[in-house]
Amino acid sequence: MRTIRTxxxxxxxxxxxxxxxxWDLLQEPGLRxxxxxxxxxxxQFLRTVGxxxxxxxxxxxxxxxxxxxxxxxxxxxxxxxxxxxxxxRATAEIGYSVVSAHRGRGFASEAVAALVEExxxxxxxxxIRAYCLPENAPSRAVLRRNGFEDDGMxxxxxxxxxKPVDVILHSLERxxxxxxxxxxxxxxxx
Length: 190
Prior knowledge:
alpha+beta; Aminopeptidase; 32% strand; globular; disordered C terminus
C-alpha cells in the first residue's frame, strides 16, 4: 500500500504501526452512527489490523485502510477503506467516515474519488460497492458525486449499534468510471 495524495488530502495506509491512531479515531463521537463496525477492544483491533495484507495490487484480497489527513497535519480527520473478498475478487466495497468537525467540506468526496481511482488502476476489481443507510443523505451525495448508482434497498443489510438496519446498495462499474475519467480528461484538455 502506498500513501495517496490529492489536492488537499494525504491518505496514509493503516499499518500495525499506526493502528492505534485509527482505533482512537473510531472512538470519536458520531463516527459509529452510520457504520457497521465490529465491537472489539483495542488489543483485538490492533491484532486484526496487524494481520491484514499490505500488498495492494492485482489479485489482492483483504481489507485495506487509509487515514485521511488534511495535507501534512498529524491528526487524522477520517478514514477510508476498500475491502476485496477472496470469494469475489471482481468486486470491492468502499467505506469511509469523517469526524463531525470536518464534515461538509468535501473531504469524503475527495477521498472516495482518490480511492476509487487507486482501486481501479491498481487492482483487477470490476465494480466498487458501497452500502449506505437511507437517512445518511450526505454520504449518499458523496457516492453520487463520484459516479455511483443506486442499486436498491437491502432489507436488514447491516447492523448498526447492535440493530439490523436497511441499507441502500450503491455501485460503480469499472467501465462507467473509465468513461467518466476519459470525459473529464478531455474536458480539462479543451
